[in-house]
């Protein structure tokens, strides 16, 4: 399966629309995973309408309407791979240990957000941890980002995890 990983879209506070490259990736993906901080329900509505499938959770900036519609931790099995999606995982220091304790017996992949900092590691117990960054709010990062991946039994779990840089339109560059 071709999977698009998103987090921290902060729509419409940080962008009036998702970048064109993200919408292209939505159209190409078999599954869109969003790790919270949507901010407004309109983006959830649009992704539900345009994505082939969606696995998503709410984040700390999401209002009650989004929290009613989405779980704090979303879980699914994607072509044999057990996936958990959560917004916050705490400080970078000790993250692998904490997530091993929380997810190792039930999860192969944890997708998370909150920091806006891309992350790709594997815990000591073998849980893959991915944070796609943010496609709309780069914060202290040089680029806004998102990830794509191939997930499933045909690739024995994960393959081709790729971090994509989001180019800002020329009108928005300083």
From TrEMBL:
Name of the featured protein: Phosphoesterase
GO molecular function: hydrolase activity; metal ion binding
Domain Calcineurin-like phosphoesterase: residue ranges: 1-151
Cofactor: a divalent metal cation
Coiled coil: none
E.C. no: 3.1.4.-
InterPro entries for this protein: Calcineurin-like_PHP_lpxH (IPR024654), Metallo-depent_PP-like (IPR029052), Phosphodiesterase_MJ0936/Vps29 (IPR000979)
Assigned protein family: Belongs to the metallophosphoesterase superfamily. YfcE family.
Keywords tagged on the record: Metal-binding
Gene3D superfamilies: 3.60.21.10
């Amino acid at each position: 399966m071709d999977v698009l990983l998103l987090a921290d879209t902060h729509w419409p506070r940080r962008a009036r629309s998702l970048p064109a490259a993200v919408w292209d990736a939505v159209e190409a993906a078999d599954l869109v995973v969003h790790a919270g901080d949507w901010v407004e329900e309109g983006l959830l509505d649009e992704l539900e309408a345009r994505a082939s499938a969606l696995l998503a959770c709410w984040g700390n900036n999401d209002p009650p309407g989004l929290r009613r519609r989405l779980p704090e931790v979303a879980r699914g099995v994607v072509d044999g791979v057990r996936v958990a999606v959560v917004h916050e995982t705490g400080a970078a220091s000790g993250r692998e240990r904490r997530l091993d304790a929380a997810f190792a017996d039930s999860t192969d992949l944890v997708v998370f957000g909150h920091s806006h900092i891309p992350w790709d590691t594997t815990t000591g117990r073998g849980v893959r941890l991915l944070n796609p960054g943010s496609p709309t709010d780069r914060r202290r990062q040089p680029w806004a980002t998102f990830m794509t991946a191939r997930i499933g039994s045909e690739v024995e779990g994960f393959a081709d995890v790729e971090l994509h840089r989001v180019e800002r339109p020329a009108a928005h560059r300083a």
